[in-house]
Amino acid sequence: MNNEFLVVDASVALAWLVPQDESANADHLLTNAGLLCAPELILIEVAHALLKHVRRKLMSIDEARRRSDALTLLLDDIQSDAALVSPALELAQRFETSMYDGMYLALAEKLDCELVTADRRLVNATSRAARVRWIMTVGGRSDEN
Fold first, then answer.
1. Taking the model in full, what pTM does it have?
2. CATH code of residue 121
């Protein structure tokens, strides 16, 4: 497995941008991981989550825009979605995940690297895939229980 790259999903990116339980572990990746990669889809998923915060009056639209823009600075590589769709479809079917999760899985497979997520359901669904790791086992603190 390639240790130069690490794919992160929207749940990890959101932990960088909005303080939450996983934030310390997500922040650890920023300074202690290889090249952080994601499919373009991450931009839409994170913007959608930030919009929910705006609608709940937890942040202003300007703050959401600033945080959304910051994501492109935190990631080392954002890959085009187009080439990932077909393999993502197969992976989503195999692991019974959403197509969104399939996109991150497809990129991790393409780069032959790990996918780190704060989504426990994705970790559970892909327990047969050694390349998926739960964020709470990365740096910072570990909440395996």
1. 0.88
2. 3.40.50.1010
